[in-house]
UniProtKB/TrEMBL annotation:
This is Glutathione S-transferase-like isoform X2. Residues 31-75 form the GST N-terminal domain. It comes from the Eukaryota. The gene is LOC112682286. InterPro entries: Glutathione_S-Trfase_N, Thioredoxin-like_sf. It comes from Sipha flava (yellow sugarcane aphid). Signal peptide: none annotated. SUPFAM superfamilies: Thioredoxin-like. Gene3D superfamilies: 1.20.1050.130.
């Protein structure tokens, strides 16, 4: 397996990973996320929790069960 930090001393490896992480965060193109799910605690709730915990902006679209047939037809 190829290692990016192969041959570097441990302290330089840590600095390398830190610098690459900082550069990645500065130049990353942020996507906008939209979570569409029922207005219940279900499979969507862990995703909502994770996005909120990571401070990722997302559009939280919740709908009631009665609205599902019309939403399904429109997709």
């Amino acid at each position: 397996m190829y290692s990016v930090t192969r041959g570097l001393q441990p302290q330089y490896s840590t600095v390398f990973v830190f610098v690459v992480t900082i550069l990645h965060k500065q130049y990353i193109i942020m996507s906008s996320y939209k979570l569409t799910y029922f207005n219940v605690t279900g499979l969507g709730e862990p995703i909502r929790f994770l996005l909120s915990y990571l401070n990722i902006d997302f559009e939280d679209v919740r709908f009631e069960l009665e609205q599902w047939p019309s939403i399904k037809r429109s997709k």
